[in-house]
């Protein structure tokens, strides 16, 4: 702990472009920083940039965590993800340590400015002073709330540490209380503009809408439902004044085969969406012109036919949980035909996922090894035949449904054909600058809906209307339920589908207390020959899918085992504290169930 927190503090100082043992030359000086309003603003931007440093497989956090849940998976034997689904996460896991490390690096960047901002208070207006403080406190609150969900009790550090400082873990209830009642006071947040100038900042900075949205999210996550409803309502009211709006979904090619066209939600999730859409409230930003400020998520997400490595995948359970267009499950709907399983489905299946027989990045996508050639429409409108490296030939075992690949499908949400063409195909050295979501308007509707459902005094009419707003955008029917239990089930479906691959699912199943139910049993993938599943799923009120052996054709279930999942409720609701930190600072205790835990 001491190594990471003190190291983070020093990194925060060095990030200001200075030296601890050299006098001020032509850059900010750590001994006097911040010395001007410009340096305060630079420090605010440095805190935001700290969030981009948390990644794995060159893919930003927290979105990647959905691939360690029940709705997403990674390539077989990928320890960072499979281990989380099998109750095998060790205390020396590099991903566990990296996230922990960067939580405190980001907090240190914020603390560095917060410790010194009063020295230059007279150099800015009262509004600017409070605005900068609010943004720094919001950024720190964001990472500390992560820390509480991931690790439980964590040290709450609110200033730059001296070399002699030493800290133990702060109870997470106390951390959350400090965040909500001391750091994110309404009177501080009200100094923020509704939203920062879109042309200048896009979705980089948090304005008042995002600030109250984040406060609503934190309240929801920790069971303060009345407060969550209040702050979500306030954020949504302000959002209208600020010009935020849901982006329409183009569903033209959903449910169609590759010959008709390519399903796409790039007007929201692609480069054009992040540049133009008013749904985005806050997102991680990247720039190809800044060294170290890119990622390569495109390579990990894209199919092998596009030069990617097909690393991450929706699970068969997630695919089978997605409703038909009548709002019923595939086990109940008369619209479902297992021989043509993509017809008459919630359009978000094709908008957010890549499945066999569809088009992705201008190419036909097939996982059947007998399909040795596929159509590529990138160079000619009528298409040309090219090798199907996804399922046939050298290293095809790493394809989406290969024996060493993920779970039979791919995520479409962040695949952008513009970025693919800019890179001339994805590869290990691709430069991707697609922004990654931290908050969008759709989430705020779902926060308000859930808060009203779970709060005893909540307005179920508001909850129903908010859920139907999100469903209506996807051309899904209105709800047929109005009671609390029915609306809870509908809400959980919407969070699972609408927010998939944005990093919420790992956390949602834990705060709902259902992780031990959904992370258990066999995780299935499609048959190796790419044939359509014949399994009739059993789907509960949480939209969790299991398979009892029943089939649509009366034959043996044709799915193949991907991995056996396991979840220990005494251990796996939290990650371990990194072992390296406990070695450096022995008074830091370990979480129950992990090596080194000692009951008090």
From TrEMBL:
Pfam families: SusD-like_3 (PF14322), SusD_RagB (PF07980). Its main location: membrane. Keywords: Cell outer membrane, Membrane, Signal. It is found in: Cell outer membrane. Residues 73-220 form the SusD-like N-terminal domain. InterPro entries: SusD-like_N, SusD_RagB_dom, TPR-like_helical_dom_sf. Residues 279-594 form the RagB/SusD domain. GO terms for cellular component: cell outer membrane. Transmembrane segments: none annotated. This is Starch-binding protein.
